[in-house]
Amino acid sequence: MNSKTVLITGASRGIGKAIALRFAKEGFRIAITCKNSKSELLRTKAEIESMGSPCLAYVGDMGSYPAVKELFSLITKTFGSVHILVNNAGISHIGLFTETDPTVWNTIINSNLTSVYNCCHQTVPDMVRAKSGKIINISSVWGVCGASCEVAYSASKGGMNAFTKALAKELAPSNIQVNAIACGAIDTSMNSFLSKADKESLTEEIPANRLGKAEEVAELTWQLAAGNDYLNGQVIALDGAWI
Which residue positions does the secretion signal occupy (predicted)? Predict the structure, then answer.
Protein backbone atom coordinates (compact mmCIF):
# COMPACT_ATOMS: atom_id res chain seq x y z
CA MET A 1 0.00 0.00 0.00
CA ASN A 2 1.32 3.42 -0.98
CA SER A 3 1.52 5.90 1.90
CA LYS A 4 0.67 8.87 -0.33
CA THR A 5 -2.71 10.46 -0.96
CA VAL A 6 -4.01 11.72 -4.29
CA LEU A 7 -7.08 13.91 -4.75
CA ILE A 8 -8.83 13.75 -8.12
CA THR A 9 -11.72 16.15 -8.65
CA GLY A 10 -14.51 15.34 -11.09
CA ALA A 11 -13.87 11.60 -10.88
CA SER A 12 -17.28 9.97 -11.18
CA ARG A 13 -16.66 9.01 -14.82
CA GLY A 14 -14.55 9.68 -17.90
CA ILE A 15 -11.05 11.09 -17.51
CA GLY A 16 -11.28 11.59 -13.75
CA LYS A 17 -12.38 8.01 -13.15
CA ALA A 18 -9.62 6.67 -15.40
CA ILE A 19 -7.06 8.71 -13.46
CA ALA A 20 -8.38 7.46 -10.13
CA LEU A 21 -8.16 3.84 -11.28
CA ARG A 22 -4.60 4.39 -12.54
CA PHE A 23 -3.52 5.61 -9.10
CA ALA A 24 -5.42 2.76 -7.45
CA LYS A 25 -3.29 0.40 -9.50
CA GLU A 26 -0.29 1.90 -7.69
CA GLY A 27 -1.93 1.48 -4.27
CA PHE A 28 -2.48 5.17 -3.44
CA ARG A 29 -4.94 6.42 -0.87
CA ILE A 30 -7.49 8.15 -3.04
CA ALA A 31 -10.01 10.97 -2.60
CA ILE A 32 -12.49 11.58 -5.39
CA THR A 33 -15.21 14.16 -5.93
CA CYS A 34 -18.14 15.02 -8.15
CA LYS A 35 -20.75 17.76 -8.16
CA ASN A 36 -23.93 15.84 -8.99
CA SER A 37 -23.36 12.21 -10.01
CA LYS A 38 -23.38 10.58 -6.57
CA SER A 39 -24.34 7.09 -7.73
CA GLU A 40 -21.59 7.05 -10.36
CA LEU A 41 -19.07 8.38 -7.83
CA LEU A 42 -19.93 5.62 -5.38
CA ARG A 43 -19.52 3.01 -8.13
CA THR A 44 -16.08 4.46 -8.85
CA LYS A 45 -15.29 4.31 -5.12
CA ALA A 46 -16.30 0.65 -4.97
CA GLU A 47 -14.14 -0.13 -8.00
CA ILE A 48 -11.14 1.61 -6.43
CA GLU A 49 -11.61 -0.25 -3.15
CA SER A 50 -11.90 -3.56 -5.01
CA MET A 51 -8.35 -2.89 -6.23
CA GLY A 52 -7.15 -2.60 -2.63
CA SER A 53 -6.90 1.19 -2.30
CA PRO A 54 -8.78 3.08 0.42
CA CYS A 55 -11.07 5.73 -1.05
CA LEU A 56 -12.90 8.80 0.23
CA ALA A 57 -15.77 10.00 -1.98
CA TYR A 58 -17.16 13.52 -1.63
CA VAL A 59 -20.12 15.09 -3.41
CA GLY A 60 -19.82 18.85 -3.67
CA ASP A 61 -19.07 21.83 -5.91
CA MET A 62 -15.32 22.43 -6.20
CA GLY A 63 -16.18 25.95 -7.36
CA SER A 64 -17.41 26.64 -3.81
CA TYR A 65 -14.66 27.51 -1.35
CA PRO A 66 -16.66 26.34 1.73
CA ALA A 67 -17.27 22.97 0.06
CA VAL A 68 -13.58 22.58 -0.72
CA LYS A 69 -12.66 23.47 2.87
CA GLU A 70 -15.05 20.78 4.07
CA LEU A 71 -13.53 18.29 1.64
CA PHE A 72 -9.99 18.96 2.83
CA SER A 73 -11.07 18.68 6.45
CA LEU A 74 -12.42 15.20 5.70
CA ILE A 75 -9.28 14.23 3.80
CA THR A 76 -7.08 15.41 6.68
CA LYS A 77 -9.08 13.37 9.19
CA THR A 78 -9.08 10.30 6.96
CA PHE A 79 -5.70 10.28 5.23
CA GLY A 80 -3.66 13.31 6.32
CA SER A 81 -2.14 15.63 3.72
CA VAL A 82 -2.72 15.55 -0.03
CA HIS A 83 0.53 14.70 -1.82
CA ILE A 84 -0.79 14.84 -5.39
CA LEU A 85 -3.64 17.06 -6.59
CA VAL A 86 -5.33 16.42 -9.93
CA ASN A 87 -7.70 19.23 -10.88
CA ASN A 88 -10.03 17.57 -13.34
CA ALA A 89 -13.48 18.92 -12.38
CA GLY A 90 -15.04 20.92 -15.15
CA ILE A 91 -17.90 21.37 -17.57
CA SER A 92 -18.19 22.30 -21.23
CA HIS A 93 -20.57 24.66 -22.99
CA ILE A 94 -21.17 25.25 -26.67
CA GLY A 95 -23.03 28.32 -27.84
CA LEU A 96 -22.65 31.73 -29.41
CA PHE A 97 -20.89 34.28 -27.23
CA THR A 98 -23.83 36.67 -27.63
CA GLU A 99 -26.06 34.00 -26.09
CA THR A 100 -23.70 33.29 -23.20
CA ASP A 101 -25.40 35.09 -20.32
CA PRO A 102 -23.66 36.00 -17.04
CA THR A 103 -25.06 32.95 -15.25
CA VAL A 104 -23.58 30.56 -17.82
CA TRP A 105 -20.27 32.46 -17.85
CA ASN A 106 -19.94 32.42 -14.06
CA THR A 107 -20.89 28.76 -13.83
CA ILE A 108 -18.20 27.75 -16.32
CA ILE A 109 -15.50 29.94 -14.77
CA ASN A 110 -16.35 28.69 -11.26
CA SER A 111 -16.42 25.04 -12.30
CA ASN A 112 -13.31 25.07 -14.49
CA LEU A 113 -11.02 27.75 -13.03
CA THR A 114 -12.14 28.86 -9.57
CA SER A 115 -12.20 25.19 -8.57
CA VAL A 116 -8.48 25.01 -9.35
CA TYR A 117 -7.77 28.03 -7.16
CA ASN A 118 -9.89 26.59 -4.34
CA CYS A 119 -8.20 23.19 -4.29
CA CYS A 120 -4.69 24.58 -4.72
CA HIS A 121 -5.28 27.16 -1.98
CA GLN A 122 -6.15 24.36 0.42
CA THR A 123 -3.34 21.96 -0.47
CA VAL A 124 -0.34 24.19 -1.26
CA PRO A 125 0.49 25.17 2.36
CA ASP A 126 0.98 21.50 3.33
CA MET A 127 3.05 20.87 0.20
CA VAL A 128 5.27 23.88 0.96
CA ARG A 129 5.83 22.66 4.51
CA ALA A 130 6.72 19.21 3.19
CA LYS A 131 8.90 20.65 0.38
CA SER A 132 7.22 18.16 -1.93
CA GLY A 133 4.10 17.84 -4.07
CA LYS A 134 2.61 17.49 -7.53
CA ILE A 135 -0.28 19.48 -8.99
CA ILE A 136 -1.65 18.35 -12.35
CA ASN A 137 -4.35 20.37 -14.08
CA ILE A 138 -6.49 18.73 -16.76
CA SER A 139 -6.87 21.42 -19.40
CA SER A 140 -7.77 21.61 -23.08
CA VAL A 141 -6.20 22.57 -26.39
CA TRP A 142 -8.93 25.23 -26.58
CA GLY A 143 -7.18 26.94 -23.68
CA VAL A 144 -4.18 27.32 -25.99
CA CYS A 145 -5.80 28.41 -29.24
CA GLY A 146 -9.48 29.05 -28.45
CA ALA A 147 -12.57 27.59 -30.08
CA SER A 148 -15.44 29.31 -31.86
CA CYS A 149 -18.70 28.98 -29.92
CA GLU A 150 -16.74 27.95 -26.81
CA VAL A 151 -15.51 31.33 -25.60
CA ALA A 152 -16.28 30.79 -21.91
CA TYR A 153 -14.82 27.27 -21.91
CA SER A 154 -11.71 28.43 -23.80
CA ALA A 155 -11.25 31.34 -21.41
CA SER A 156 -11.51 29.07 -18.38
CA LYS A 157 -8.93 26.66 -19.76
CA GLY A 158 -6.65 29.48 -20.91
CA GLY A 159 -6.81 30.81 -17.38
CA MET A 160 -5.93 27.36 -16.07
CA ASN A 161 -2.88 27.22 -18.35
CA ALA A 162 -1.62 30.62 -17.18
CA PHE A 163 -2.37 29.65 -13.57
CA THR A 164 -0.27 26.51 -14.08
CA LYS A 165 2.75 28.39 -15.40
CA ALA A 166 2.59 31.12 -12.75
CA LEU A 167 2.09 28.80 -9.77
CA ALA A 168 4.89 26.51 -10.98
CA LYS A 169 7.35 29.43 -10.87
CA GLU A 170 6.20 30.35 -7.37
CA LEU A 171 6.38 26.81 -5.97
CA ALA A 172 9.44 25.42 -7.76
CA PRO A 173 11.80 26.59 -4.95
CA SER A 174 9.75 24.36 -2.62
CA ASN A 175 10.24 21.32 -4.88
CA ILE A 176 6.60 21.34 -6.01
CA GLN A 177 5.79 20.69 -9.65
CA VAL A 178 2.72 22.17 -11.37
CA ASN A 179 1.89 21.00 -14.88
CA ALA A 180 -1.16 20.83 -17.13
CA ILE A 181 -2.36 18.42 -19.78
CA ALA A 182 -4.07 20.16 -22.70
CA CYS A 183 -6.39 17.45 -23.93
CA GLY A 184 -7.63 17.27 -27.48
CA ALA A 185 -10.76 15.35 -28.46
CA ILE A 186 -11.08 12.59 -25.87
CA ASP A 187 -13.75 9.92 -26.25
CA THR A 188 -15.81 10.55 -23.11
CA SER A 189 -19.41 11.39 -22.22
CA MET A 190 -18.51 15.10 -22.52
CA ASN A 191 -18.51 14.52 -26.27
CA SER A 192 -21.61 12.31 -26.30
CA PHE A 193 -23.63 15.11 -27.92
CA LEU A 194 -21.73 14.50 -31.16
CA SER A 195 -23.53 12.43 -33.79
CA LYS A 196 -21.78 9.53 -35.49
CA ALA A 197 -21.24 11.72 -38.56
CA ASP A 198 -19.82 14.53 -36.40
CA LYS A 199 -17.38 12.11 -34.74
CA GLU A 200 -16.28 10.79 -38.10
CA SER A 201 -15.75 14.34 -39.38
CA LEU A 202 -13.79 15.25 -36.25
CA THR A 203 -11.65 12.13 -36.54
CA GLU A 204 -10.72 13.10 -40.10
CA GLU A 205 -9.27 16.38 -38.75
CA ILE A 206 -6.96 14.59 -36.30
CA PRO A 207 -3.67 13.32 -37.80
CA ALA A 208 -3.72 10.32 -35.43
CA ASN A 209 -7.04 9.42 -37.11
CA ARG A 210 -8.87 8.74 -33.86
CA LEU A 211 -10.10 10.32 -30.65
CA GLY A 212 -7.99 10.00 -27.55
CA LYS A 213 -8.83 7.63 -24.71
CA ALA A 214 -9.41 8.56 -21.08
CA GLU A 215 -6.86 5.92 -20.15
CA GLU A 216 -4.21 7.75 -22.19
CA VAL A 217 -4.84 10.93 -20.22
CA ALA A 218 -4.64 8.87 -17.03
CA GLU A 219 -1.30 7.37 -18.04
CA LEU A 220 0.22 10.78 -18.78
CA THR A 221 -1.14 12.08 -15.47
CA TRP A 222 0.55 9.19 -13.69
CA GLN A 223 3.83 9.85 -15.50
CA LEU A 224 3.75 13.51 -14.41
CA ALA A 225 2.96 12.49 -10.84
CA ALA A 226 5.65 9.84 -10.62
CA GLY A 227 8.29 11.29 -12.90
CA ASN A 228 10.87 13.97 -13.50
CA ASP A 229 10.94 16.72 -10.84
CA TYR A 230 12.62 19.09 -13.32
CA LEU A 231 9.55 19.00 -15.58
CA ASN A 232 7.63 21.97 -14.28
CA GLY A 233 5.32 24.73 -15.46
CA GLN A 234 4.43 22.98 -18.71
CA VAL A 235 1.18 22.73 -20.65
CA ILE A 236 1.53 19.43 -22.49
CA ALA A 237 -0.75 18.82 -25.47
CA LEU A 238 -2.28 15.36 -25.75
CA ASP A 239 -4.20 15.68 -28.98
CA GLY A 240 -2.89 13.30 -31.64
CA ALA A 241 -1.14 16.23 -33.38
CA TRP A 242 -4.54 17.85 -33.95
CA ILE A 243 -3.76 21.48 -33.05
Answer: none
